[in-house]
């Protein structure tokens, strides 16, 4: 259910005591709490990618091997979780016969199992690589914009790795994209810092335009009080006080996520609107317009955010949806789905991933208990 305040540019006439409330909230952060309401459509968006990232990593490993397959002893050793159970990687692959097939080669003492992609999976992987090549300039621009959001135009490579799946980066982007574009990216290691950082080599001001600003130009609006598109799940009721606050909050000045926020008082609603704008832009940089909440934990200092910055997700459920599916919290940008289960603008890589997910569900066999190991039996790789 789309809410009309998303398009409101001017506040409605207010009585004198309402104006006092509005004046106060411009100066301080108003303590308004909106309840969380389950959104089944967006929960299904998160749930349909169950195990997809794990499967895709194994597809990458097998497809990149020049031998056309990988022996079982060269697969990752860490057990993989499937539902409530843990599987050895070789047994995990057997769960998806439409994607993986097993063969054996003889050695001096025994038969060694090998794993390959099925013909259909191989063809889909080739299609995916073609899509990556065709969309590389767009991907590079999104990576540049991600770094432009930060204070020093740089992020620890580990933080970029955490976002790489959501941004559609190839698993070997360190060796491919970064090396192919030295005029854009460089890897550095600051003094007294064990981390390697990805730094932007040059700044392009033409990229420093947020999605909200682009859309406002399309609509013909030149106001500096840009309003975020807002919608709520069915059954969500907004109290009058909260409606007044949100209407006034939408009319506050919009600070570009690419601008220096040092002049903003972090205790004000204006600053909070800037934080919302940062994550609104960050989610637009992902191909699925969503990311796990844990991926944002290392971004507070680079993005110049105050303590407890993730509270904006609870305070603005009309902009962000906080899904609890799959055992972790996922932040979803509501406007990207417009109340449905499908993206309004679907990136080509999303279509590829949907085909992988469909193949994962095809031909699942009954699985014998002997293939499975319990979590208590899992041996740490360090041992």
Tell me about this structure:
InterPro entries: PORR_domain, PORR_fam. Residues 37-364 form the PORR domain. This is PORR domain-containing protein. This protein has 383 residues and is an alpha+beta fold. It has three domains: 22-42 and 208-345, no CATH class; 47-129 and 357-377, no CATH class; 136-200, Aspartate Aminotransferase, domain 1 (Alpha-Beta Complex), CATH 3.90.1150. It has helices spanning 16-27, 40-47, 52-63, 89-93, 119-134, 136-148, 157-167, 177-180, 211-219, 240-250, 269-284, 311-315, 348-360; strands spanning 70-71, 80-82, 85-87, 100-106, 111-117, 154-156, 185-188, 197-200, 290-292, 320-323, 330-333, 372-373. The strands form four sheets. The chain has a three-stranded antiparallel sheet. A three-stranded antiparallel sheet has the order 2-3-12. A three-stranded antiparallel sheet has the order 6-8-7. Residues 1-25 and 366-383 have low confidence and may be disordered.
């Amino acid at each position: 259910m789309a809410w009309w305040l998303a398009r409101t540019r001017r506040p409605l006439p207010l009585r004198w005591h309402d104006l006092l409330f509005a004046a106060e909230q411009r100066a301080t952060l108003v303590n308004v709490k909106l309840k969380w309401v389950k959104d089944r459509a967006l929960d299904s968006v998160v749930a349909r990618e169950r195990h997809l990232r794990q499967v895709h990593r194994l597809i990458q490993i097998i497809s990149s091997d020049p031998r056309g397959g990988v022996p079982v002893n060269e697969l990752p050793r860490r057990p993989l979780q499937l539902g409530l159970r843990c599987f050895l990687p070789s047994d995990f692959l057997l769960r998806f016969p439409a994607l993986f097939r097993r063969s054996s080669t003889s050695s001096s003492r025994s038969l060694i199992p090998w794993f390959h992609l099925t013909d259909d999976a191989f063809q889909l992987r080739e299609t995916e690589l073609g899509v990556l090549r065709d969309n590389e300039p767009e991907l590079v621009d999104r990576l540049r914009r991600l770094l432009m959001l930060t204070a020093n135009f740089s992020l620890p490579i580990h933080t970029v790795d955490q976002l790489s799946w959501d941004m559609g980066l190839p698993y070997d982007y360190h060796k491919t994209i970064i090396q192919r574009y030295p005029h854009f990216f460089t890897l550095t290691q600051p003094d007294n810092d064990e981390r390697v950082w990805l730094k932007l080599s040059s700044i392009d001001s033409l990229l420093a335009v947020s999605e909200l600003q682009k859309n406002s130009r399309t609509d013909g609006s030149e106001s500096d009080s840009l309003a975020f598109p807002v919608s709520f799940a069915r059954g969500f009721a907004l109290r009058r006080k909260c409606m007044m606050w949100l209407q006034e909050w939408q009319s506050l000045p919009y600070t570009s996520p690419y601008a220096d926020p040092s002049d903003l008082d972090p205790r004000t609603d204006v600053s909070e609107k800037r934080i919302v704008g940062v994550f609104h832009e960050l989610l637009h940089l992902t191909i699925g317009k969503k990311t796990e909440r844990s991926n944002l934990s290392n971004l507070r200092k680079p993005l110049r955010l105050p303590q407890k910055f993730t509270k904006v997700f609870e305070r603005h459920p009309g902009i962000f949806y906080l899904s609890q599916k799959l055992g972790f919290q996922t932040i979803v940008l509501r406007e990207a789905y417009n109340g449905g289960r499908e993206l309004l603008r679907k990136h080509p890589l999303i279509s590829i991933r949907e085909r992988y997910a469909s193949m994962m569900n095809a031909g699942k066999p009954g699985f014998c208990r002997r293939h499975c190991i319990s979590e208590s039996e899992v041996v740490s790789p360090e041992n």
